[in-house]
Automatic annotation (TrEMBL), chains A, B:
This is Thioesterase family protein. SUPFAM superfamilies: Thioesterase/thiol ester dehydrase-isomerase. InterPro entries: ACOT8-like_C, Acyl-CoA_hotdog, HotDog_dom_sf, Sec_Metab_Biosynth-Assoc, TesB_ACOT8-like_N. The lineage of its organism: Bacteria, Bacillati, Actinomycetota, Actinomycetes, Kitasatosporales. Residues 38-123 form the Acyl-CoA thioesterase-like N-terminal HotDog domain. Residues 159-283 form the Acyl-CoA thioesterase-like C-terminal domain. PANTHER family: CHROMOSOME 23, WHOLE GENOME SHOTGUN SEQUENCE, THIOESTERASE DOMAIN-CONTAINING PROTEIN. It comes from Streptomyces guryensis. It holds the Pfam family 4HBT_3C.
Length: 286, 286
């Protein structure tokens, strides 16, 4: 086997990767799916919100006649834990170009009663059916080459408790937005990084739902410690991503009254803006 | 009566204005409200999406223990018409700081069956209970003084069919984003205007839901004619607006595959960023 073929063989394929296995759903009844939320996508003890959104997104892709999330809005209700969960979907409307659905993720309390974790509304379509016109004034983020950016594996020691998701992701952060890691936050609400899955699986519309919520919070660069739980996250998927690593740029402009917004852009290797997202998050001072 | 008192007397109050009367709901059952959608908020024949969002927002303010929409996401399913409608709400979760609810607006087909127009998910809180810290890098839009901007009443002739909502709003558009009106669009996806209600009612969190979707589409300045129906609109209300006219700035950066985003910011007379919104809209070429 040539060296190139060997490298190729070690890359996980879409449909056969950690991300796919950990978002796989077991149909229980029409529109109802069981899943065991993986402990592999936790930050400290919380299950990552982007991973959870991808789980809900996959359920809706199955339940709706269209496969690609064009716009998906999630309201986060209670904190999810690794372990059993059920996703219940509801088809709101089906159309020729777009279909709209709703989904909720539930887990179980000590008495086995369902507790709702997240509720989602989304409109799905077929990205491959869109015309290929692009008129954009958006520009890819100015970010150094991947080998000049830094990930958790490049530091002297892993951040305690934060390693589970780090093993599943390839995140290389622009040094210009990494001051917080050495105690010198820039004071700017910016975070930029190269992003991929650690096993080399290429991006698809579902993994974009993870990509928009996987970087360290911009609040770190604003000098804030503590947790920044998401209240609501809306993602627009604008194009099917090309193979190769993504660039993710996150910006916070307005921190006020204990809340902030995080605006994310995701760019693919063809310099195409493939996703835009915004979330409203609470600032819990640590 | 002094001149100032007379001017004051002619200004409608919050709670007693066209906007309040036209978004008023009649309780039918717990969480269920009837309304006659006013023909006063139509553009050509379509009921304005921001007015409809305000109707749904008012229903949730009644149904939830918190009164102010912090983040509200609406998926537009079918076109609303002036006339009878029903809003059905569902309390998803109530918390100390935030409550989450869902609401749908229905109208009736020829056989009297309910047809869903819009579905909404929202998290509500109490804006007055937030700390008054503000750290922002956002800047108010560069827009000329109100008397140097132009509204529908300033043109030589009203745009045919578009006048109903124009009578209810005070919109004065920055001449720099008004090229489309004289056949010379700038090619930039920008629209900026002063915004208020024609009867002088001051803004509140519910009227902000109208303000983000009341300007001409940025597509006009991109040289596109025809209609730009909203697929999904999410609004974050970040502060209770001060009295006086608002400034609304809308930006589109990415028109691709027949869809575009419209990002709106709303600023109050105290130079406070009071709302941020983003919508995904379809471009239907006229």
């Amino acid at each position: 086997m040539s060296e190139a073929a060997s490298a190729q063989a070690t890359r996980a394929a879409i449909g056969d990767s950690e991300f796919d296995r950990d978002t796989a759903l077991i149909p229980r009844a029409p529109g109802v799916y069981d899943i065991d939320l993986s402990a592999g996508w936790t930050i400290i003890n919380a299950v990552n919100g982007g991973y959870l959104l991808a789980v809900l997104g996959r359920a809706l892709a199955d339940a709706l006649p269209h496969a690609d999330p064009f716009t998906i809005s999630a309201h986060y209700l209670t904190a999810s834990q690794p372990g059993p969960a059920v996703v219940r979907t509801d088809v709101v409307r089906t159309g020729r170009t777009l279909s709209t659905g709703q989904a909720s993720l539930f887990q179980y309390d000590e008495e086995g009663r369902e507790v709702e974790r997240i509720r989602v509304l989304a409109s799905y379509g077929d990205l491959d059916a869109l015309p290929d016109d692009v008129r954009t004034t958006a520009e890819p983020p100015a970010i150094p080459p991947l080998d000049q950016c830094f990930g958790p594996q490049d530091g002297p020691a892993p951040v305690s408790g934060s390693s589970a998701i780090a093993d599943r992701l390839m995140i290389k952060i622009d040094p210009a937005t990494l001051g917080w890691a050495v105690g010198a936050p820039s004071g700017k609400g910016e975070m930029r990084a190269w992003f991929g899955l650690a096993d080399g699986r290429d991006a698809d519309p579902l993994s974009l739902l993870l990509a928009v919520d996987a970087l360290p919070p911009t609040a770190f660069e604003l000098g804030l410690k503590g947790w920044v739980p998401t209240v609501e996250l809306t993602v627009h998927v604008r194009s099917r991503p090309a193979p190769g690593p993504l660039r993710v740029s996150i910006t916070t402009r307005n921190l006020a009254g204990g809340f902030l917004e995080e605006d994310a852009e995701v760019w693919d290797s063809n310099d195409r803006l493939v996703a835009q997202s915004r979330q409203l998050a609470r600032v819990r001072l640590g």
